[in-house]
Specification:
alpha+beta, Alpha-Beta Plaits, 4-stranded antiparallel beta sheet, two-stranded antiparallel ribbon, 2 helices, about 25% helix
Length: about 100
């Protein structure tokens, strides 16, 4: 079995942005993504997810450093000021 080193870009943000961000990340070169609902507590208080329009989502994208940086820079510039947005990357090994 071989492995391939990549980054996993994780984006935690408001569900209202889902369609817009999908368009952005695919236009920036992401070949795929995974979106799931997210609930929890953080600096913005408790997010229970009981109201879908006001909930949070988690978007995960696998890519190289260049892709992840390009996406994170664009989203930060366009959305961080007006929306809750947290992004981080993790090194991952894909099993082929």
């Amino acid at each position: 079995m071989s492995t391939q080193s990549m980054l996993l870009l994780t984006i935690l943000t408001e569900a209202v942005l889902e369609d817009i961000l999908v368009d952005e990340i695919t236009a920036l070169g992401a070949k795929g993504y995974t979106i799931s609902e997210a609930r929890g507590r953080g600096t913005h208080g408790v997010r229970t997810g009981k109201w879908s329009a006001g909930g949070n989502i988690r978007i995960e994208i696998l890519g190289d450093s260049e892709l992840c940086t390009r996406i994170a820079d664009r989203l930060q510039a366009n959305y961080e000021r007006d929306y809750g947005l947290l992004m981080f990357t993790s090194a991952v090994e894909l099993q082929n």
